[in-house]
Design brief:
The complex is a heterodimer of chains A (159) and B (121).
Chain A: H1 15-29, E1 36-37, E2 47-55, E3 59-65, H2 67-78, H3 85-106, E4 111-113, E5 117-120, E6 129-139, E7 142-151
Antiparallel strand pairs in A: 1-6, 2-3, 2-4, 2-5, 3-7, 6-7
Chain B: E1 2-6, H1 10-22, E2 29-33, H2 36-46, E3 50-53, H3 62-71, E4 78-82, H4 87-96, E5 100-103, H5 108-117
Helix pairs in contact in B: 2-3
The chains are: A alpha+beta (159), B alpha/beta (121).
GO biological process, one term (chain B): phosphorelay signal transduction system
Keywords (chain B): Phosphoprotein
InterPro entries (chain B): CheY-like_superfamily, Sig_transdc_resp-reg_receiver, ST_Response_Regulator
């Protein structure tokens, strides 16, 4: 499938494990209202966040949400109605950090988790990345897209 | 008791404070730090009874903070609150001298159990 000299094995965490973990993060820190899986959507993705895992397994975890969802998530996590743009960046980054840290724990170790990066607009995925998991979710009719990409490990030490 | 909470996310610091309250530990004095370096200087200034620290932070991460505290002679009780709860990370935490590791997402019960395990409450 990958016409390279050294075909990469794209190991993926199970979609069921990822969904269960995301539901746990969500119900604990965001909202009792559930996330509903939906068919792949081309929706407003005006806020995005990512973390990278580098090591025995390398990959990136990305979360893309609408601006409305980003603000609502922040209000829920802080349990405050008045929030700042910095709070929104912080909350979305912390959400992807928690999901990424748990994905890291599902995969072969040792590996290192990056700090989260949060941006306006949707994620630019590097060309060497292969999407291995995608969850399209709806929360109060707002879209959330969680994707896990496997990255070929170019920092692998000599066996 | 005085608890120092080190996390680069203000949102997470607020969630930790809220969860402590839900766990029945709302009466403690709280000091907040934004990263390991900030925590190190605030621990020297404020002498907390317990440190609850994130692992992955800018400036100085949690495991380096713990190592620097021990190298400086500080015996302050120390626990991690981190999104990384694998066996490997728990082993590293324990080897570094941490009393416990609470994995995110956490429950009030996890905080209550961890605090009681320290013998401080």
């Amino acid at each position: 499938m990958h016409p390279t000299t050294h075909p990469a094995i794209h190991v993926a965490p199970g979609a069921g494990d990822v969904m269960a973990m995301v539901n746990e993060v969500w119900s604990t820190f965001v909202d009792a209202a559930p996330l509903f899986p939906t068919s792949p959507i081309e929706a407003d993705r005006s806020r995005s966040a990512q973390v990278r895992v580098t090591g025995a397994w390398s990959g990136m975890v990305t979360l893309e949400v609408s601006e409305v969802a980003a603000r609502a998530v922040t209000r829920h996590m802080l349990a405050m109605s008045e929030i700042t743009p910095e709070d929104v960046t912080d909350a979305i980054g912390e959400l992807v950090n928690m999901i990424g840290g748990n994905v890291k724990s599902l995969m072969p170790e040792p590996s290192i988790l990056s700090l989260p990066m949060v941006a306006a607009g949707h994620i630019a995925v590097p060309s060497e990345a292969t999407e291995v998991t995608r969850l399209d979710l709806l929360w109060h009719d707002e879209p959330l897209i969680l994707r896990i990409h496997s990255l070929e490990n170019d920092t692998r030490s000599t066996p | 008791m005085k608890i120092l909470i080190a996390d680069d996310s203000r949102v997470m610091r607020q969630i930790v404070i809220r969860t402590l309250r839900q766990a029945g530990h709302g009466g403690h004095e709280i000091v907040e730090a934004e990263n390991g370096a900030d925590a190190f200087s605030k621990i020297a200034e404020t002498s907390p009874d317990l440190v609850l620290s994130d692992w992955n932070m800018p400036e100085m991460n949690g495991i380096d903070l713990l190592a620097q505290l021990r190298a400086s002679g500080s015996p302050v009780p120390f626990g991690f609150v981190t999104s990384e709860g694998s066996a490997e990370m728990r082993q590293r935490a324990e080897s570094g001298g941490a009393l416990f590791l609470i994995a995110k997402p956490f429950t009030p019960e996890a905080f209550d159990e961890a605090l009681r395990s320290t013998g401080l409450v």
